[in-house]
Design goal:
Radius of gyration of chain A: 15 Å
Structural class of chain B: alpha+beta
Shape of chain B: globular
Structural class of chain A: alpha+beta
Strand order of the largest sheet of chain A: 2-1-5-3-4
Largest interface: A-B, 55 and 61 residues
Largest sheet of chain A: 5 strands, mixed
CATH superfamily of the largest domain in chain A: Beta-grasp domain
CATH topology of one domain in chain B: Aldehyde Oxidoreductase, domain 3
Strand content of chain B: 15-25%
Distance between the termini of chain A: 50 Å
Radius of gyration of chain B: 26 Å
Strand order of the largest sheet of chain B: 3-5-1-12-9-10-11
CATH architecture of one domain in chain B: Alpha-Beta Complex
Order of helices and strands of chain A: EEHEEEHHHHH
Oligomer: heterodimer
CATH superfamily of one domain in chain B: Aldehyde oxidase/xanthine dehydrogenase, a/b hammerhead
CATH topology of the largest domain in chain A: Ubiquitin-like (UB roll)
Helix content of chain A: 25-40%
Distance between the termini of chain B: 59 Å
């Protein structure tokens, strides 16, 4: 089938088999920042934004992204520079394989995600085996601060 | 060398690329014209291979070939593969020995075609009796997994041993230990069990190989020890060492799991066989079922103390399930050095450990972050609490009375001029005591439901920091007063490349921005043993100093290469004490770890954040081992065969982590550091199990501490096997 969408703010067209995952289509188009992990939708490595919502692109049929506004980690320096900056500054990473998904997930947080407890719950779908999560949560809290989201009262 | 925390916390060299998706890992590197390989994997644990029918598979569009062991043998001979002991074929020959073993490989133009075709290969098996339990595998008359394992290259057993023995290590004096136990005022004997696990790195293994123009093969992939991989791949393929070149690429998580050589060598063989580039990328479920996981253990501990609660003797008898092949174990003993070193923390009059590893028809087991130590610590540190109860001494006090101190001789006969076990233990207890309810993390602040029972447990661990190991570096001048330092190891996430940049910048007195760190292929530097054994920072900082000296002597205009030998400086010992606070639901057995306090004995800290992440990440991995992780290997299958079943800790699961750095220690190497990578993941399970016992009055001797196990323990019933009943 023919897929037409916006990816990272630019028009995107691809001829894809109907059963393709969005992950495979994006990676096939050279957007290799989005990683394949568990392929069952639990590790969060492949997180991308579809119309502002974070999805596991390994389980997301590419065809469902027709006409959608898709953002991947490659677009985060433009869409969410404060999130990228917070991950760099707080070293919210070690091996880095989960980092694209973490950055995208944090970029999708709304103002209702306030405080450490909520941030940890929000990031429950993004595994990290290296850091113990401390610096990732710090980066996420800092990114929320920078966007003017206050902590819990 | 005095200790300093230098506070050098400039951004990691790899931070921005990782946060923007620009870092290219093995799966992101495309090699033009590569064929995609997909393995046909055994569906049974133990069988003779009767026939492999590839007709249907060959009919799939895009399939180029279906390769079996016979095809590879015709080209490369019948050498087996392995890191130290070579006992594993690249593809199963006459037998399969575990469910998931590669029987054949489909090569196709696309990955989809390769995977679709692999599912159509029909394998006919003649079942053999499976061998699924390690202690039973070592009983007389147990079915054999291998006909004559003592004939394998690198074997450490003889024909006189049980044919299912992979390795046996005995340290200490068993009869002296037994005699000392016989004379002890209090003795406890207990048996502990730990499950199959996995390193749980999140980047699936991925290899790409291509024939080189001048002959030989290049290999790019998830390799934590490129020079060792080169050596083993060359041996198996009958090639000269320099005919295999391992290319540089960062590694997306290792923890011991990215040192395997079998799939890498298979990929190289396929590229040479097909005379084309070949990519062999695993799916995550293949990583969990067909690589090398953590050894399950059955460990009997006997420990005794005198009437005053001073430890006298320790006897540890461990049987590990090594799985179908020993190929993934990298050390000469083909054993688990964490088991051998398990009694380092205490003064003992007598000590003996026996560590046996059995062949079974299950997934091969390899090394994972302090191999053998988490299992040993769970058993020993839990038994110490059982002994404390019998002796009427508080658990922390029992440890304090026998912990190694400055000038003491350890159970192995080595005298340490610095041994800060008591200080480390005291620091953990003091911090946990004063932590109160002040905390920022959910499990520390989240209210514990009414009726849940609270408990606290402690555990202690000690490990040595070895002197610098052999490594090599090259410094190359670049434009604009910049330099490029070429390193032999991948960045696996620990921050080693950032350490190199900052240490070199300091040694040359230049801005870190003027130093570029670049991993290079194995063709370009002399040697390095790879990432592992908590050795990288010690060895590489020593090499950096030498490199800077040579560079200055030579005037800084031409490239300089150094190859450092193994250091002769004395090792140091470092301690980690952990205190776990838990709440347990008496109705369901659910365990909530509210706080985990780690005190860590440190010398210099080069990168405080990276150091902290080793501590936090280790503690969380220890928590996963304690409470969550179990591959559920049973009946010849891995039942938890994906990351939805094999549960790793999430940000929400994590207990409140508190860390106390016990500063002022003396370290190793020119920067004076102590190992930290394999420290906080070790005592955690015992600390949590001891806390659960404190809360419930019941002892669970089998990990993980699932609600179900605790539920049955609370009701005084056996905690094993009910999930299958």
């Amino acid at each position: 089938m023919k897929l037409q969408a916006q990816v990272n703010g630019s028009p995107f067209e691809a001829d894809v088999p109907a059963a393709s995952s969005l992950l495979d289509v994006l990676r096939g188009a050279g957007l290799s920042g989005t990683k394949e992990g568990c392929r069952v939708g639990v590790c969060g490595l492949c997180t991308v934004l579809v119309d502002g919502r974070p999805v596991s692109s390994c389980l997301y049929l590419a065809g469902c992204a027709d006409d959608a506004d898709v953002w991947t980690v490659e677009g985060m320096a433009v869409r969410a520079p404060s999130v990228v900056g917070a991950f760099v500054e707080h070293e919210g990473m070690q091996c880095g394989i989960c980092t694209p998904g973490q950055v995208v997930a944090v970029a999708s947080m709304g103002p209702e995600v306030r405080g450490e407890d909520a941030v940890r719950r929000y990031l429950g779908g993004n595994l990290c085996r290296c850091t113990g999560y401390g610096t990732i949560v710090e980066a996420a809290l800092d990114a929320q601060d920078r966007r003017g989201v206050p902590g819990p009262t | 060398m005095t200790a300093t925390v230098r506070g050098l916390d400039v951004a990691r060299v790899d931070a921005r690329d990782k946060a923007t998706g620009a870092t290219r890992y093995s799966a992101d590197v495309e090699v033009g014209g590569a064929l995609h390989a997909a393995a046909v994997r055994s569906s049974v644990p133990h069988a003779e291979l009767v026939a492999v029918d590839t007709t249907a598979a060959r009919g799939i569009d895009g399939v180029v070939a279906v390769v079996t062991a016979r095809d590879l043998e015709q080209r490369f001979g019948d050498e087996l593969c392995g890191r130290r002991m070579r006992d594993m074929p690249l593809l199963a020959r006459d037998k399969v020995r575990f469910t998931g073993e590669a029987v054949a490989v489909v090569l196709a133009d696309t990955r989809r075609a390769a995977e679709d075709a692999a599912a159509l290969v029909e394998v006919e098996y003649r079942d053999l009796p499976p061998v699924l339990d390690a202690p039973a595998a070592l009983e007389p008359g147990a079915p054999r997994v291998h006909e004559a394992p003592w004939r394998y290259d690198g074997a450490v057993v003889t024909e006189a041993h049980h044919p299912n023995l992979q390795s046996e290590v005995v340290v200490g004096d068993l009869s002296a230990a037994q005699a000392a136990l016989d004379g002890a005022a209090h003795v406890v004997t207990a048996t502990y069990r730990t499950p199959s696990g996995h390193q749980g790195y999140l980047e699936p293994q991925c290899w790409t190989a291509w024939p080189r123009h001048g002959g030989g093969v290049a290999l790019l992939g998830t390799a934590k020890a490129p020079y060792r991989l080169r050596e083993q791949a060359a041996k198996t393929l009958g090639l000269a060492l320099d005919a295999v070149e391992v290319e540089p690429v960062p590694v997306g998580g290792d923890f011991g799991g990215k040192g395997g050589v079998v799939d890498a060598t298979l990929c190289a063989a396929l590229a040479l066989w097909a005379d084309r580039p070949v990519r062999l990328a695993l799916r995550s479920n293949e990583d969990l079922t067909a690589t090398d996981g953590r050894h399950p253990a059955t460990i009997e501990v006997r420990v005794g103390c005198d009437a005053d609660g001073r430890l006298l003797a320790l006897w540890v008898d461990a049987v590990f399930d090594g799985g179908a092949y020993a190929a993934a174990k990298p050390i000469p003993s083909v054993n688990l050095h964490g088991m051998e070193e398990c009694a380092l923390a205490y003064r003992l009059d007598a000590f003996a450990v026996r560590s046996r590893i059995a062949y079974t028809t299950t997934m091969p087991k390899g090394h994972m972050r302090a191999p053998g130590a988490p299992q040993a610590s769970f058993a020993i540190e839990s038994t110490l609490d059982e002994l404390a109860a019998v002796a009427g001494v508080p658990p922390a006090e029992l440890r304090r009375r026998s912990v190694l101190a400055d000038g003491h001789r350890d159970a192995y006969g080595h005298t340490w001029d610095e041994a800060r076990g008591a200080e480390t233990l005291a620091a953990a207890l003091a911090d946990a005591e004063q932590a109160g309810s002040a905390s920022g993390s959910p499990n520390g602040t989240r209210p514990v439901p009414q009726g849940w029972r609270r408990g606290r447990g402690v555990a202690l661990y000690a490990r040595p920091t070895a002197p610098p190991a052999t490594t090599s570096l090259r410094l190359v001048p670049a434009d604009g007063g910049r330099v490029v330092v070429e390193v032999p190891i991948p960045e696996t996430g620990t921050g080693s490349h950032s350490v190199v940049r900052e240490e070199l910048a300091a040694a040359l007195d230049v801005d870190p921005d003027r130093v570029e760190v670049r991993q290079v292929s194995t063709g370009l530097l002399p040697y390095d043993p790879g990432v592992g054994a908590s050795r990288v920072t010690v060895g590489i900082t020593a090499a950096v100093r030498e490199l800077a000296d040579r560079w200055r002597e030579a005037g800084g205009a031409a490239p300089v290469t150094v190859e450092t030998g193994a250091g002769t400086e004395r090792p140091r010992i470092s301690f980690c004490a952990q205190v776990a606070d838990v709440a347990v639901d008496p109705e369901t057995g659910q365990v909530l770890v509210t706080r985990l306090t780690s005190a860590v004995d440190v010398a210099s800290v080069l990168r405080p954040r990276a150091h902290r992440m080793q501590i936090d990440g280790g503690a969380v991995m220890g928590y996963g081992f304690a409470c969550l992780e179990d591959l559920l290997e049973a009946d010849g299958q891995v039942w938890a065969a994906n990351l939805s079943e094999f549960r790793l800790p999430t940000a929400e699961d994590v207990p409140e982590l508190r860390t106390v750095l016990v500063e002022g220690g003396r370290g190793v190497g020119p920067s004076g550091v102590k190992a930290v990578g394999e420290l906080t993941n070790v005592p955690t399970a015992a600390a949590i199990a001891n806390a659960v016992a404190d809360a419930t009055g019941r002892r669970v001797r089998h990990l993980p501490l699932t609600a179900e196990r605790v539920y049955w323990a609370l009701r005084g019933e056996a905690d094993d096997g009910r999930w299958r009943a």
